[in-house]
Structure formats: C-alpha cells, structure tokens
Amino acid sequence: MHKLIALNLFALTFALLVSAAPPAAETVDGTWTASFDSFSGTQRYTWELSSDGEKLSGKVISESGEQPIREGSVKGNKVTWTETVTSDGNRTRMKYEGTLKGDKLKLTRTPVDQTAQSGPGGPGFGGSDSATAKRSK
After folding, report:
1. What is the pLDDT of residue 81?
2. How confident is the model over 13-39, as pLDDT tens digits?
3. Which one, 53, 86, 117, 125, has least CB within 10 Å?
4. Are 103 and 32 in contact (CB under 8 A)?
5. What number of other Cβ atoms are within 10 A of residue 129's Cβ?
6. Cα Rg of the chain (Å, integer)
7. Domains assigned to the chain
8. pLDDT band at 114 (very low <50, low <70, confident <90, very high)
9. Which residues are bridge partners to 94 per DSSP?
10. Is 133 exposed, middle or buried (CB count within 10 Å of its CB: 0-12, 13-18, 19+)?
11. What is the pLDDT of residues 68-89, one digit of tens each?
C-alpha cells in the first residue's frame, strides 16, 4: 500500500513539474519572405536567419542579388540587423527592426545612410516602411 501511495505521489509530482516547465522560446532561425512596396514597385526579399544566443547572422536574397546581413542581434522576441540596398544607382544601408510572433516577423526598415552612385534617380528611400515576413515551411 505504501509503495502504491509513493508511486502515485511520484507520478503526480512528475506531471506537475512537466506541465509547469516554461514553453520553448520562439526562435527566429529559418527562412523568411516578405515584400515591401516602394516608389520603384514591389521589392521581394528572402532572409535566411540563424541565431546564436543574442547574435543574429544570415543572408538576404532579393532581386538585387545575395548578401550577408550585418549587425544582427536577438533579444527575446525582438530582432535587428542591417543590410545594404542598391536602387537606381544609390546604395543605402537599411536598419531592420522586427518582432517575432510564431511564424510571423513584423518588420520595420529605416534608411540609416545613403551614398549616391552613378546612374539616374537620386535618393531612393524616404522614411520607414513596414511589412510582415512569413516563415517558410
């Protein structure tokens, strides 16, 4: 009888500990896609992101080609990184700030600095714009 009570207490304690464990943290790791509407039309992006603690690395793939992301960080469900965008002869370093929720990453991008290159156009980016990236499955 005592063995049965002890076994039941052990099973109950184990069940309580397992159910009280915190949920697994969301991860930004994976492939994400989003589109931004700009003065020159829709810009489609794919990001391959990987986190290691608070460090975020990866690459961006767009109509302009492929390049690494820079200055990436992860803090809880918040992510940031920069990348360089070339449009109409201008190079612009863009800062991305995002909030992760499941398989969606709400992004805001803001131009940080811009360097005019040869070619027509002039400044290609104004203020911030937003998009929601979706994780590829």
Report:
1. 95
2. 555 444 444 344 588 999 999 998 877
3. 53
4. no
5. 16
6. 22
7. 30-135 (2.40.128)
8. low
9. 83, 111
10. buried
11. 999 999 999 999 999 987 777 7
The token pair at 5 is 């009570």
Q: Which two tokens stand for residue 7?
A: 């076994």
Q: How far apart are CA 29 and CA 50, in angstroms?
A: 5
One DSSP character per residue, the chain reads: -HHHHHHHHHHHHHHHHHHHSPPPPP---EEEEEEEEETTEEEEEEEEEEEETTEEEEEEEETTEEEE-EEEEEETTEEEEEEEEEETTEEEEEEEEEEEETTEEEEEEEEEEEEE-SSS------S-EEEEEEE--
Separation between Cα atoms, residue 61 and residue 48, nearest integer Å:
8
* Residue 4 one-letter amino acid: L
Structure tokens at 14: 């184990």
Choose among 133, 61, 130: nearest CA to 101. Answer: 133
